[in-house]
TrEMBL record, chains A, B:
Residues 15-75 form the HTH tetR-type domain. Keywords: DNA-binding, Repressor, Transcription, Transcription regulation. GO terms for molecular function: DNA binding. Coiled coil: none annotated. The keyword Oxidoreductase does not apply. It comes from Paenarthrobacter nitroguajacolicus. Residues 38-57 bind DNA. It comes from the Bacteria. This is TetR/AcrR family transcriptional regulator. SUPFAM superfamilies: Homeodomain-like, Tetracyclin repressor-like, C-terminal domain.
Amino acid sequence: MSTVTGTRGPYAKTAKLRARAIEAAIDLFGTAGYNGATLTEVADRVGMSLTGLQHHFPDKDSLLAAVLEERDRRASAGVPEGPGVETLEGLLRMLSESEKNPGLMELQCVLSAEATSADHPAHEYFQRRYSTLRNQAVSGFEEMASRGDLVPGIDPQQLAAMVIALVDGLQLQWLLDRDAVNVEAAVRTFIRTFIPAVR
Amino acid sequence: MSTVTGTRGPYAKTAKLRARAIEAAIDLFGTAGYNGATLTEVADRVGMSLTGLQHHFPDKDSLLAAVLEERDRRASAGVPEGPGVETLEGLLRMLSESEKNPGLMELQCVLSAEATSADHPAHEYFQRRYSTLRNQAVSGFEEMASRGDLVPGIDPQQLAAMVIALVDGLQLQWLLDRDAVNVEAAVRTFIRTFIPAVR
C-alpha cells in the first residue's frame, strides 16, 4: 500500500493520517457504534476521500483492529501492576482519571455491548479481554487472601467478575447521567468491604 | 394509517404484523444495535416489503419506541414489588430466569450502551429508566435500613447504583462467555454482604 521509505517525510505523513483516522474512529465507534459507523463518515471527519482513507485502512475491520490496539495501549498506560493493596489504590485513582476522557469509556461501553453478538468482529477480542482481566484480578485476590487481606469466605473468582462488572455498570450509569453516580466512591466502598486494608 | 375497524379481521391482522415486526426488531437491535439496523432488514425478516412495514412503523424511531414499550412490559412482568427481603429473593430468581431469554438481555445491553450518546433516540428513555430503577431500589433499601436489615454505614443511594451496575456488568460478561460467570450467584453474594437476612 503506502510506500514507507524509511525517510522522514512520507512515513511521518502516513503515521499522522493513520493517527487522525484512528482518533476519528474512536469517537465515532464510541457514539454510533462499530455497527452504526461507516468508513465514509470516518473519511469525512478527517477531511479525506473514502479512497484516500482506504489506502490506510482497506475496510472497517482493519480500522477497528487499529482502534482496539490503540485502546489497549491507552488503557494499559496507567494501570498499576502487582497484587497488593497499592494496586487497588492505583485502580481507584485511574477510575477518577478516566472521567476526564469519556471518549475511551464510551468506546469500551458501546463496543463491548455490540461484541456480545457472536458474529461481531470484536467478539473474540472482548472474550479474551474479559478473561484476561478476570484472571489478573483472581491472581491478585488470591495473593491478598494468602496474606489475610481478604475477608474470609469470599471466592476470588467470583470477586474478580464482580469488581469488573461493577466498574462497567457504574460507568454506563455515569455516561448516561454524570451527576447520578460517583464511580470511584462506589467501587471504593465495594473493595473496602471485601479488602478492609483499603481505606 | 391502517384502518382499525374494531372487528376481528383487519385489526387482528394488523396486531399480528406489528407483533412480528417488534419481535424481529428486538432480535436485530439486540445484535446489530439500533444504529446498525435498518428498517429494510426488519422488513426482510418478517417477509414484508419496506413500504408494507412503513405502513405500521413509518420510521426506525417509531419501531424503537414500540420495542422499548414491549421490553418494559416483559421486564416488569416478573418483577417482584415491595421493599422486603422477599423482593430481593424474587429479583434473584428473575436473574436466573432471564438467562432463558438472552434476546431481551442483549437488547438491554446494546441499546443502553448506544444510548449513552446524547443524540441517540433512546437517550432520555434510558436516563429515566436508570433514575427510576435507582429510586425504587433506594426506597427499598431505606425501608430495610429502618428495620435493621441493612449493614450499618452503607448509603442506600450508593448501594442502589451498585446493585444495578453489578447486574448490568455481570450480564455483559455472561453474554460474552456463558461459562465464565454465574450472574445470580454473584449478585446473591453481593446482596447477602449488605443485607445479611438474604440467604
